[in-house]
């Protein structure tokens, strides 16, 4: 008999979370498992065609807090009577305002308890700490009976405890059976916050390496092309890569810097590029579909990710784009930030430099621009590194070992 795995996601689909869909697809294709996905918000974003098979596995439970007052009351009334004759004790527990706070007051837990009461699974695998925290509370309410696994990825452990208190995940740590982090950095943060060490394991974000065609391209002798992919938010550190690009301009080195992504700081960075005189050298592409992004990967010579720790403590997670770039054969340049040391072999598949150090970024970029053999050596090594450590088939084998441990 197939074992049932229910993945808990907050929103779906999210264009920036292919690492989740790579993992879920790999589990779903395993004949030993039956997969279902519970989400609290269907975004309407267009999912990449490679993940369309997941759409049939998704079930949305709409949170009342997202509804108008009238619809919230209707949802609450329906859930009240749905639980009243099925599980009156859970109905009462969902109204524990003192313990559950806002999620009880706004009827989220009433509706979730009703929506989850007949969702049966051997394992509930929750991605991101806040979603796992909800499931921990629903277990306390009495509507979750399977084994529980929580996966942390980045801001959920670097920001949330600072923002909401160090005990934000205390009930989660007591209730869940196993925990994963995507890098050594994230696991250290989890352990420092109280996550039990003996039940915590490293499971990196993964990708289907076969979808990325390897190639070697010698850097152009006329125009050196760089690429960064990421949202325009503080932790991406775009101002430092733009300053590094400005040094190319000052030294009369022909170059193009391609930037892919959108976000609240985009126009600020566009204006900053103009103040540096880079408007004819930096191309802001906006958000891009995965297939178009792969085409762009194939036209550049190096991938750069200049991330920094934001003022509120927000950091990157593993930085899956680093694995994508290496899978294609690009040398990579990134900062000594969060899980990046797990994502790059420094000096072998790319370079790591200190955060906020535009001069060091420039020095390594010029090394790439003048040494074709270096780029190709690192590209070949990078592909091998990603195949051996981040391919979805390999990573999910380790995940399934954790599932087997629970069953």
UniProtKB/TrEMBL annotation:
Residues 222-384 form the Glycosyl transferase family domain. InterPro entries: Glyco_trans_1, Glycosyltransferase_grp1. GO terms for molecular function: glycosyltransferase activity. Keywords: Transferase. The keyword Nucleus does not apply. The keyword Transferase applies. Transmembrane segments: none annotated. This is Colanic acid/amylovoran biosynthesis glycosyltransferase. It comes from Pedobacter duraquae.
